[in-house]
């Protein structure tokens, strides 16, 4: 039993590390994920790596091609538009339920998540166009906490999946936010205020605007499939 638990723990750890590296842009869109190289990098067996990659296929963060192996997904603006709309619809419904069902504990935890987000450095030192990993995590945590009180596990799971997919796009087009004059911190303050005031209609409107503004920034920056490899951190030699 102990060996089985250890194996499950290792598999979860490798999956988490792979997920983090993919979202941070360690590999370019379309790049093949070599089992041998990954096994060496994560210091584990190819079996564990394959299991982790297979689970990430289910999360749509990895693409499995028959007889060819595992790849980082190639992104498209059309898909991002669909993902953004689905996220808006999903979270508009979720925030209405959360505002209705959330208790004092939820309010306190939401305020704490926002405080962490506010206090976390937004841009990477020396590169004001790149978001910090800590801020990205704090940002996701805040948005997850917003909907947590809806108490619908399926909705929450879908929210997390859509958040990951959006983050994957944002990593490759993160510099696009320079092209839009926006105050992201103020957007979060307004969303928080609406949730705490139990104003579901306002919170829904603000969440949609928050996501659609990012989409518009990426569109304005001219993000395309052709630009992914040449502009990616991996291609420029700055992969982490």
Detailed description of the structure:
It is a single chain. The chain has 240 residues and is mainly α. It has two domains: 2-74, Orthogonal Bundle (Arc Repressor Mutant, subunit A); 77-227, GntR ligand-binding domain-like (Four Helix Bundle (Hemerythrin (Met), subunit A), Up-down Bundle). The chain is built from ten helices and five strands. The chain has helices at 2-23, 35-42, 46-58, 77-101, 104-119, 133-148, 153-173, 184-196, 200-220, 225-231, and strands at 32-33, 63-65, 69-71, 123-124, 127-131. The strands form two sheets. The chain has a three-stranded antiparallel sheet. A hairpin with a 3-residue loop joins strand 2 and strand 3 (69-71). Helix 4 crosses helix 7 (153-173), helix 5 packs antiparallel against helix 6 and helix 5 packs antiparallel against helix 8. The longest helix is centred in the middle third of the chain and has 25 residues, at 77-101. The protein is globular, with a radius of gyration of 19 Å. Mean pLDDT is 84; it is low at 1-5 and 229-240.
């Amino acid at each position: 039993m102990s060996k089985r638990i250890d194996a499950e723990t290792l598999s979860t750890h490798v999956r988490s590390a792979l997920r983090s590296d993919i979202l941070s842009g360690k590999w370019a869109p379309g790049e093949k994920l070599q089992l041998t190289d990954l096994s060496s990098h994560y210091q584990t067996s190819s079996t564990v790596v394959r299991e982790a990659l297979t689970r990430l296929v289910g999360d749509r963060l990895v693409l499995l091609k028959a007889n060819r192996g595992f790849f980082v997904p190639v992104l498209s603006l059309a898909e991002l538009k669909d993902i953004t709309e689905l996220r808006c619809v999903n979270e508009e419904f979720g925030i209405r339920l959360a505002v209705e069902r959330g208790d004092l504990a939820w309010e306190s935890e939401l305020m704490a998540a926002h405080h962490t987000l506010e206090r976390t450095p937004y841009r990477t030192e020396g590169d004001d166009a790149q978001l910090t990993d800590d801020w990205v995590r704090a940002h996701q945590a805040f948005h997850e906490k917003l909907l947590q009180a809806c108490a619908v596990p399926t909705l929450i799971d879908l929210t997390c999946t859509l958040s990951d997919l959006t983050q994957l796009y944002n990593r490759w087009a993160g510099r696009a936010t320079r092209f839009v004059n926006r105050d992201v911190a103020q957007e979060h303050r307004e969303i928080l205020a609406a949730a705490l005031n139990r104003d579901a209609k306002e919170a829904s409107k603000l969440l949609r605007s928050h996501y659609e503004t990012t989409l518009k920034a990426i569109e304005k920056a001219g993000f395309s499939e052709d630009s992914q490899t040449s502009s990616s951190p991996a291609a420029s030699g700055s992969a982490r």
